[in-house]
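Hi V.,

You were right to ask for the full record rather than a summary. Here it is.
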Amino acid sequence: MTLLLDTHVLLWWLDEPRILAKEARKAIGDGKNTVYVSAVVAWEITIKRALGKLDAPDDLEAAMAANRFLPLSLTVKHALAVARLPDHHRDPFDRLLIAQARHEGFKIVSRDPIIAHYDVPCLVA
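Predicted structure:
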């Protein structure tokens, strides 16, 4: 299984993994699964840290590497795919993550209930 982590899921995994649902913890920690973290997540963390709204690791790349999480770049195809999404969600970060997961065929890991309204596989965090 190939997973794409939502921002809150990554932060919970790094700081307090017990917050995550048991199935999500098991899937993320299972070495047989490939786990991606999108550039969109890094962008959201950077913006929210700068605004003082978020506490996150100083070296996100090192934290990702330590957990064997792979980076997922944002492409023009991903960005354009957002236009094909219904307007269930207004958050631009989440819309990009949904578009990436759909385009790449990944299962998104999130606790956001709005994501379930999209045609994308989701594992509840």
